[in-house]
Design brief:
globular, six-stranded antiparallel β-sheet, 82 residues, alpha+beta, single chain, Veg protein, Protein_Veg, 6 strands, SH3 type barrels
Length: 82
């Protein structure tokens, strides 16, 4: 697992446009799984375009800190990235 925010961003920069599964903590004992495509990375956040068949909204953004603190996990093509 990358130990700096810059390393996380660099890894995600290489994956722009790829299919992604984001597993996020949504509460004490609840997780959400969202399928989509990595749309763009910005200095503090990255954006995922969601699959419209499964979700009622188009996009969601997450902070690189969410990956670092393990509040979310990202899976590209069945291989865990973070």
């Amino acid at each position: 697992m990358p130990i700096t925010l810059a390393a996380i961003k660099d890894q995600l920069d290489d994956k722009i446009g790829e299919e992604v599964l984001v597993i996020a903590q949504a509460g004490r004992k609840k997780i959400t799984k969202r399928h989509g495509r990595l749309h763009m990375t910005y200095p503090a956040v990255f954006v995922v375009d969601l699959d419209q068949d499964e979700n009622s909204f188009e996009r969601v953004s997450y902070s690189y800190t969410d990956i670092l603190t393990e509040n979310i996990k990202i899976d590209f093509d069945g291989t865990s990235e973070a």
